Structure formats: C-alpha cells, structure tokens
Amino acid sequence: MRIAIIAVLALALLAIINGGAGTLAAFLRAQRPIPDGGRVQEMMMIDFADTTAVNAWYSRNDDVMGGISESTMVANDTGSATFQGVVRAENNGGFATVQTDFSPARNLQVYDGLQLRVRGDGKQYGVYLRSDNRSVVYQATFVTSADTWQVVRLAWRDFLPTRFGQVVVAPALDPSTIRSLSLLIEFKQFGPFALEVKHIGVFEE
Description:
The chain is of the alpha+beta class and 205 residues long. The protein has two domains: 1-32; 41-204, Jelly Rolls (Sandwich), CATH 2.60.120. Helices cover 16% and strands 44% of the residues. The chain has two helices and 13 strands. A hairpin with a 6-residue loop joins strand 7 and strand 8.
C-alpha cells in the first residue's frame, strides 16, 4: 500500500542478484516486522494516557434536536479514558457522542483500518469518521463484553456512509483525509453507559 514499497522491491531485486534468496529473506525481515502468529502491526494514533489528548474530545449529543442525553470523556488514573454518560428518551432523544478533530486532516490511506483497545459494559458502540465528503458521516459499530478488555479492529470497508443515522448511497470512505473521529453509543440504548478506552490506533495486515 505504501509508495515506499516500490523502493523496497527494487532493493530486494538487488539483494537477489547479489546474494541469493537467503540474503533477500534477511533484507525483508529488516525492512518490516514479520507478523507473529498472524498478528497485525498496529500504530498508536491517540494515547489516552496523554491528558491533552483526552481534553481534545467534546460532546455532541441529542440536545441539537431537543434531547437531554449527556456524555463526556473523562481521564482515568490508569492511563485510559472513559466515554460515559446517560442516554435519555425525553424530547425524542436517544443518542450521545464525543468527538475529536484533526487539523490538519489525517492521511491514513497507507493503513487498513482503525484498532481500539476498549473495555465496555455489554452495550453496542460505534465510531464516526468524517472526511472531505461533508454530506455524509462514515460509521462502523462493535459490541462490547461487559468488564472485559477487547481489541476492536474496524477496516475502512466496515465504515458505511450515513446521514442522520441512516445508511445512504455515497462513495466509500476516503481514509486520506480524516478530519474528525467520534465515539458513539448506538441509538436508543437508554440509561447509563461507560466505555473505557486505552488507545486508538491504525493497523495494517
């Protein structure tokens, strides 16, 4: 996926010519870690041990439509943060999110998707991504196991174009211009919720 692959292949060809297959194998191992037992390579993007990263999140709830749901992102002493609040049904409410913005936009096209380390409460959550296509929001969802740490991988193809929560026909997500990222609790799961997040990264297979 990387442009640099072209250079790597050229150097690898020289390795074959000069030293044979054994030299080539050693060269490739030096250029990129080999997945161990099928594990993917992960790069951290947001580390919630950094209070600056935590403070960059802000709430976007159903109060924009008259609802009274609440949410916040709170730093923990353990180097994580918790997306927490209450989803309420009053005034046709039913959703709560927190968002962080990227300026300049993040170019993540050399990766295959997002990877999150989370501990939830058994409820269903999701991630919103916004790109240069401002008419839609791209959404992927996941289900948590109560009080259990999980690694959640969301490939770019998992993010569906939505508008006001409904899937629409639109171009696929362009990961070269990610302008914001939101965490959300899936619609109308009323009551208190809590999703602890250790970090958010990107992965490549």
